[in-house]
Amino acid sequence: TVLLTFDFPYYGFPIRNITIATGGFLYTGDYVHSWLASTQYIAPLMANFDTSLSTNSFVKFRDDGETFTVVWENVSLQDRPENGSFTFSATLNKSGDIVFAYKTIPIDIQQIYDDKHPVKVGLSDAYIIDKTIFRTKQKTIYEYHRVNFGRSKVQNDTLITLYAQPTCFSYKDCQSCMNHEGSDFKCIWCPTLNRCSTGVDRKRQDWIQKGCDKTQIMEISVCPALGSKGNNYGEPVEISTEGNDTNGTYRHETEIQLSKSGTNKSGAPAGAASHDDSVNRVPAFHTGMEHESSSSSLLVTVLVICCLVLTCGGWVLYAYRNPHTKSGQLLIRYHRRQQSPLQQQRHPQHPDYHRPLLHLVGHEEERLLSYLYHLDEASGFGPDGGDLLAGSGLEVSDYSFAPSAAAADLGD
C-alpha cells in the first residue's frame, strides 16, 4: 500500500491509500480482504500475472506530486508463461483523470483464461456495511458502480483515458446540490451530514446511521437558508484518506494505434464498434456481495461450551463407574438428597425399602461374601459359616436382607 502525496479524487472523493497488486490492478479500498479483485479496483489489465517467473519482471511506481504512475513491466501469465511478457501502465492524475497505456500485449486478451483469476479492464467502486450478529462482526461489500471496457481493442500502443466528471460530493451547499442536473444520477442533500450525495456511495453506512434517508432534501424550495443549521457552507466536511464517499461517473476516450489513427468526437476509435469500448455504468445496488465475518469469538464460545459439557459428562461417568472415589461418594450423596420424601418415609419392612441400599453397596456385599466363603473353607467351619458369623457379631439374615451395622458402614 502506497500513501500518495496528493488527494486523488476517485469517483469525486479524495483518497490517499493505493494498494498495488501484481495482478495488474490497483486497489482503492481501505479494508484489505481476500477478494480484492472483486470491487474497488482500477484495472488497466487484471489477470493472473506472476512476477516471480522471470528476473526481468518488475512492478514500478512513481509519484511526482501531480501524477501517480504504476508500470507492470515484462510480467507473464502464471498459467501460460509461453505466451510472452506484457508491459502496461496506469496513471492517476491529481485532477481525477485516469490513463491506461499498453506498450506490449503479446496475445489477444480475450484468450487469457479467467478460471483461476478474473480478467478485467476498467473501474469499480463499492461501499462496506458493518453489522454485528450474535456478537460477531460482519462486513458486507456492495458494489454500486462499475466501468467495463471491451477487451478486443486492448493491444499494442493503445491508450484509454478516463476524464473525471463533476460529482455530487463537489457541491457544498443545499442550493447548488439541488441545482445539479445530471443524466446519470440525482443529487440529494443530507442536512444532518451537510453533504451532497446520491445516497449510495462509500459513506452509505454514515448516510444510514445519521438518518439521511428520512431527513434528505430533494427539492430546492425546502433547503435551509445558507449558513444556517443543515446548510452550513463553511462547516468542514469529513474527508478520509481511506478512500470512502464517492459519487459520479467517468467519461473515457480511447486511442488505438496512435501513430496511425485518431479518435472521433465520441472518444471511440474511428471505425470501432461503440459497444466494445463503451462505458458500462452499472448501478449494481446490493450486488457483488461478500461476507467477511470475524467468527473467532463465536467459535471460541462454542468450543468452551462443548468442553464444559464433555467434562461434566466424563466426570459423571467416572463417578458412576467408581463409587469408592470421592467423586463417586459425592454422586451417591447427591442421589440420596434427590430421593423423594415419600421414599425416605417408607417403613423398613416395606419391600422397596432395601432397594437403594442394596443398589449402592452391591459391590461391597459381593466382596464380603467372597471373603467369608474363602475364610470358611480355610478355617474348616461349616458351609453356613454360622460359627464365624457368630463370633463376628453378624447374622446371615442381617447381612443378606437387612441393613445391618456392617452393611451400613460399607455404605458410608
From TrEMBL:
Keywords: Glycoprotein, Membrane, Signal, Transmembrane, Transmembrane helix. The chain crosses the membrane at residues 298-320. InterPro entries: Plexin_repeat, PLXDC. Its main location: membrane. Pfam families: PSI. Residues 257-279 are annotated as: Disordered. It is a single-pass type I membrane protein. GO terms for cellular component: membrane. Residues 257-266 have a biased composition (Polar residues). It is found in: Membrane. It comes from the Eukaryota. This is Uncharacterized protein.
